[in-house]
Design goal:
Chain A is of the alpha/beta class. Chain A has 11 helices and 17 strands. Chain A has helices at residues 8-31, 132-139, 169-172, 200-221, 234-243, 256-269, 285-291, 315-322, 342-350, 356-361, 365-371, and strands spanning 35-42, 50-58, 61-67, 78-87, 89-94, 142-147, 155-158, 160-163, 173-175, 180-183, 249-253, 273-277, 295-297, 326-328, 388-391, 402-407, 410-413. Classes of the chains: A alpha/beta, B alpha/beta. The interface between A and B is large, with 42 and 32 residues.
Chain lengths: 417, 422
Amino acid sequence: MKIFKLDRESVRRGMWLALVMMVAFSETRELRAQLAIRAGVLHTMAGEPIPDGVVLVRGRTIEAVGKAGSLVIPEGYRVIRARVATPGLIDAHSAVGLSGMLNQSHDQEQLERSAPVQPELRAFDGYNARDPLIDWVRSLGVTTLHTGHAPGALVSGQTMIVKTHPANVDRAIVNPAAMIASTLGPGALAGEGGKSPGTVAKAVAMVRAELIKASEYARKRAGADPDKRPARDLKLEALTRVLDGTQPLLISVDRHQDILAALRVAAEFKLKVVLDGVADAVLVLEAIKASGFPVIVHPTMARASAQRENLSWETAARLKEAGIPFALQSSFEGYVPKTRVVLFEAAAAAANGLSFHDALASITIDAATLLGVAHRVGSLEVGKDADIALYDGDPFEYTSHCVGVVVSGVVTDQDPK
Amino acid sequence: MTLAATGQERAVAFRGATIVPITGPVIEDGVIVVRAGRIQSVGGPGTAIPGDAEVHDARGKLIMPGLIDTHSHVDIDGGADRSGPIQAGVRILDAINVRGSGMQQAQAGGITTANIMPGSGHLISGQTLYIKLRDANSVEQLMVTNRFGRIAGGLKMANGTNSRRDPPFPGTRAKSAALVREKFIAAREYRDKIERAGGNPEKMPARDLLLESLVEVLNRERVVHHHTHRHDDILTVLRLQREFGFRVVLQHVSEGWKVADEIAEANVPCSIILLDSPGGKLEARDVDWKTGGVLERAGVPTAFHTDDPVTDSRLFLRSAAFAVRAGMSRKAALEGLTLVPARMLDLEDRLGSLEVGKDADFIVLSGDPLSVYTKVLETWVEGVLVFDRNRDKDHLWATGGYGAGRPRAAQLCCFNEFEEDR
């Protein structure tokens, strides 16, 4: 990293880091033995399901995928059998890791309320890789999380994409700065006391003003004379990345009028947007489709309250019919249960109009594509990360169990859940 | 309400169904006949169908008793207020919105009877109400009369952290128990005074709504539904129960798996909730899907509840399925949705199984009750079809969509209530 200056303090820290890494890697090398997964049905999500399929894992990645018999399991590979295997599941939007299981103030890092616009906050600075909820979702097959600050502030921070293996955040990270999270509509209002935004229209005006400011900042920072450049500003720097499309703007928005407002702002600034939640999607399907933006749709079984009063268990199916790319999410929960699980949300979508394949895709390959990480996760293909979930039956059935999870080549879970 | 009239006068019969009576073996290609709100006959393909019956072809479908939710908060507008921790005189029946969408969704979930409770923010937050999920204009039309001729309902109590607040609420668990004991002792003395008065109005104590309710509890006529999570709190409930001899259902029992033998020994039933993840509050940190199986193996009668809105009434079957996933038997799980809760509400002579003479409360499912893919197709309460997934309006309640959160909006935007029902 360029900012790494070789002063004494840094050298000392560097040595510590090296030591920690050595310990960590020597631990995982044992766990990450060469592995063969043999499944009655292998859903690779890169082609038709393979009956009696095999996945060979070497180190962190997938070495080979094929049908038992034609693909020989080499000597010395540890064989794990299951009725069904799928790619490790991907939760396309979560607050797990920031919104801790206990729901006490010390483990709630999902929202900073000191100001309405704070894109400089980075999820990975608040992520607790050892929160029990990470273990929980992983034990049901989730191997990748797109997580970060929860909806509730106008611009709440930068999301990250992370693996769920039990490690520190720096080793689990896939993309430390995936998107910039924002919320439009009643959910982002400051509430009492004359603070802004107090209305939805004011919220939109504030976002527009900040984007204009960021665009001015970018222009001045690019100026030829270093003395005339403005001082670095983390907030405007982050918004600059929204303007140039480096980081998509994730807009959590539910009501139809707020969805249209989001699209209006996106068109004005030519933003790259991912729509999130979108309870009223079916009322404005054509506008969403015309925008070309993908949707991370609300959890199928989310509570229909406040701005989500119109949500439907059939929204995912309607998006599919309309040809709008989408993925499913667990979203954020403030009370009990503290998180949803995308496996169950996809199951409910499959029971409400979506095909089995499309429902599974919404938490594997389609989620990976939407998040820009399909080169690493989302399907079982040679060279991709060895992230695999094993089940003893239809993964969506209530009474099936997740019987094994592999994350980056490490077998993390084997007790049926 | 013409449908109600039909349900009372003309027989309705289903044939070809897989029938799960709960109290007997599963019947394939079965017949069930209902008339005047009651079950007239249940049996195999040879069962006689009255000539006047409206006959439904239920081939490929499954019929089981209507589900009984032992703990729900649908469409209530608060119970007790913040003035004190013990308010046994407050009735939840005075705060129920019978036109709420929650009732509609409960019907869509196959629930035909529910215990509507005030919240858990008090040691005693008030009297609960057992309702039948009929289509109603007033709460009176939802009520059930119990064997003492009174409105059927229990008493909601809670311990642990929810009922801990600033004074006059308790600040600790020991104080919580002391406050409850004081009140039950006062209720005993009140009851004794009434007995000693021997009908003499001069000697009667002044009527006290709070103590009256607790006397019903002491007399074992009103069942306590006790919110409790942690293992030590569960044991505290059992201690109070021993001291005062009341009948109690342990509600939630998140850590019930840790003290299953103690619960079994106390001969106390449990009602459990199954959640997508543990936590959300400290006391629910150790909540576990395995509780149902552990309690079953310990011999504890175990039912389920939605705690709606904590879980959704439309997904009530899922709770039983998750219990099976974690080791409960299928038989116990299906009983836990029907017959076991019927006993908890003292309504087992009318509800909980498909038997001749019982209320015609049943649901028609598209398949296995424990499968994610199964839909509740129809919900019948006392021979009246209250939910039919084929009706657009009912489909809206079942899946959600524009207007589903606001019944009034739903009616204005999409449907004409009057035309449809007549």
